[in-house]
Amino acid sequence: MNEPLPLRRSARSAGPDLAAVVQRVARGDKEAFSALYDALAPMVFGLVLRVLRDRAQSEEVAQEVMIELWRQAARYRSDAGSVTTWAATIAHRRAVDRVRSAQAATDREHAQAARDHRTPYDDVAEQVETRLDSEQVRRCLGNLTELQRQAVNLAYYRGLTYREVAETLRTPLPTIKTRMRDGLIRLRDCMGVTT
Fold first, then answer.
1. What letter does residue 1 receive in the DSSP assignment?
2. What gap in Å lies between CA 54 and CA 180, rounded to an integer?
3. Residues 123/130, Cβ–Cβ less than 8 Å
4. Angle ∠(55,60,64) on CA atoms, nearest 5
5. CA 102 to CA 98: how far, in whole Å?
6. Which of 98, 91, 6, 95 is nearest to 40 (CA)?
7. d(Cα 31, Cα 155) in Å, to the nearest integer?
8. What are phi and psi of 12, to 5 degrees?
9. pLDDT, tens digit (0-9, with 9 covering 90-100), for 112-142
10. If both were cysteines, with which of 31, 91, 124, 161 could 44 make a disulfide (CB 3.0 to 4.6 Å apart)?
11. RNA polymerase sigma-70 region domain: which residues (predicted)?
12. What domain range is 67 assigned to?
């Protein structure tokens, strides 16, 4: 059976002796944790709210702090400070961690946006390069025989299979395959592509 919570004797208030309550929490006493929660949650929430300035996040972080107090109760040492100071330290640390985490996420998003950002100059340069490549392809296609040019155009610009190209041009399939292979070799050489 649980023993009653020890009362703190002070001129200001008569509440539980928090150091004794924490000792009971360390032993897994849920009733003691309820008393600890009632005593500290308002202070923890207020401190976190001052750091985060966002009510929803502050509620979430305050809950995390209270859970940490439950889990870390056995680590509390009264010679290091009061229970209130211990809880406030944990709350402040958690709130600052949340701010840093949010700032790091914002920094990552900004860095990604900066990497993805293209200036108008980059767009113009890319358009010029694409146009020059297109002109070179047209010039190189002009160097192919009529059958090679038609076969390449049908296969690569209209997406036809070798068999469909052969049917469209009314040419035997082996001839189409040979002409396309030869045409692609000539295109590669004309464009200066190395393999």
1. -
2. 66
3. no
4. 140
5. 6
6. 91
7. 78
8. -80, -45
9. 777 766 554 556 556 666 666 778 778 888 8
10. 91
11. 36-103
12. 18-116
